[in-house]
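Bug: C-alpha cell stream looks shifted between consecutive jobs. Job 1:
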Amino acid sequence: MQNSANDPADARENLQQQIQHLDEQLIKLIGNRQRLVNELLEAFPQQLGNRIVTSSQRLDQLLDQPEAAEITRGQLSREMLGSVMKHISSLCIHSHRPTSAAYLGPLHSYSHLAALKYFGEATELRPVSSIRAVFESVARNDLPYGVVPIENSTDGRVVDTLGMFLQCDMKVCGEVLLPIHHNLLSRTPRSEITEVHSKPQALSQCRDWLAKHLPQARLVEISSTAAAAKLAAETRGIAAVASLEAGRQYELELIDANIEDNPNNVTRFAVLGTDLPEPTGQDKTSILFQLHHRPGALADAMSLFKSHSLNLTWIESFPAPDSPNEYIFFVELAGHRSQPTVTQALQELEDAAQRLTLLGSYPKAD
C-alpha cells in the first residue's frame, strides 16, 4: 500500500487547503481594514479617501518592511506588490464613499494611467474627449474629481490646462507624477511602417528617435496615444507611439520600447476637486495672480515669497485674457496654506495684486 504522505494527490490537497485557509484570512483582514477606514472617515471627514490611497510615503514605508522585502526578492516585484496594496486601499475607500473621476480619454491613455495611479482601480474612471470636458465635468458636479496633465519635463507646461484655470473656477486637491515611457507599436514590421500616429506631445517627446530610426515615415498628429494604437491595429503600415497598456489592449507588437528622447520623461497631473487636504509636512500650494501693470510689480511680488523664506517650485506666465501686454502668473510653492508663513505671504500678495486665486494646497507627489 502506498504511503499517503507520499501520495501526490494528498500533497496537492494539503497545499490547496493551506491556500484556502490563507485566502480566508486575507478576506478577514481586508474586512477589518475596511471597518477601520470607515471609522476613520466618519470621525475625520476631511481625511478623504484618495489621500489614503495615494500616500506614496506611507506605501514606501510598508514596502521597506522586512516581510515585503522578502516577497519582492522573488518574482513579485516591488511595483506589483505596491499595486496590490494600493488596490486594496482603493477598495476600502470605495466601500465608504463610492467616487468617480473624469480623465482625458480614451481608455489606456496616459491620463487614464495617471488616474489609476492616484485613485486606484476601485474608483469609477470616466473618459472624456478633452481637457475642457474634464474641467466642465467637475464644475457641473457631474463628477467629484478630474485628472488633467499640467506639465511635462520635456515639453513644459500644458497650455490647454492652464488656459482652463483662467476660464473656470476650479480647485486643485492633489497631484500625481507619471513617468512617461513611449513605445513604438504596430502590426507592421518596422521596415514597412509608412506613418507614425500619436498625440502631438508624444511625437514631440520622441522626435529625435523617430528622425533617426524612421526618417521615411510621416508623423501624423491624432487626439490621443490610445486612439493612435487603435488605428495602428486597424491599418497596415501605421505605427503608434503609445503606452504598453494600449498596445496590449489592441494586440499590437512592440516594435521598440522606451523611445522617448529624455529617459527621465515625466508628466505631472493635477487632480481637480473640492477636497481640502490637511497638511502633511510635504505639501505644495498652487496660486494664480495678476499684477497691476507698473514697473517692478513682479519683482515686488517675488520679494514677498523671499521675505517669508518660501521656496517657489514652479513659475509660469500666461497672457491675460482681454488685457494686452498683461500676464497671469501661475506659481507653486513649498508649504501648506495653513502655515503662518504661507498665510502671511498670500495675504500680502493679495493686497498688492490685481487678482489672486488660491487653487489649493495638497500633498507633494513623489
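Job 2, same session, no restart:
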Amino acid sequence: MGNQDIDTKEFVALLTRYSRRIYSFIRVLVPNQTDAEDLFQDVSITLWGKYGTFRKGSDFRAWAFQIAHYKVLNFRQRQSRLPRLFTDDIVEKLAGDRLLLDDALEARSHALADCYQRLRLEDRELIDLRYTEAATVPSVAAQTGRSVDYVYKALRRIHGELHRCIDETIHGDDPK
C-alpha cells in the first residue's frame, strides 16, 4: 500500500468524522439549504485538494472550519448584489459562536463518553438497551424483567448521574 492510499484513507476517515459538523458550520452561515449543500461539496473538494498541506497531528476540524469560513466569505462576495439575510459582521459573529459551540459540544461529548464508562455495569446495560437498540421503555422493562416504573426511575437516576458527572468534568471538578 502506497503513501497515497494511506493519505486517502486518513482523509476519508477525518472527513467522515467531521462532515456533519462542517456542514452544520456552513449551514449556520448560509441560510439557503441548496447553497449550503453546494458549498459543503466545494469545501470537501478543497479539503481533499489541500490535504497535502494539512499537518498531520494538528486539528483537522479547525483547519476544515477555516477553509469552510473562507469559502462562505467568497460565496457571499460573489452574491454581493443579492439581498443578504446577514451582514458580514453578523456572519463573523456567527462563525465565532459556532466554533465555540462546536468546542463545547465536543468537550461534552468526551465527558459523556468518560462518564458513561464510570457508570455501574447494570446502568450501562440499561442505557445501551434503551438508546443503542432504540427500544421503548416498556420493551426494555420486558427484556430486563423489571417494571416500566422501575425502568423510568432508573433511567431518570442515571440521566441525573451523567448530567452531574458531565458538568463536574467540564467545569474542572472532575469526579474521578
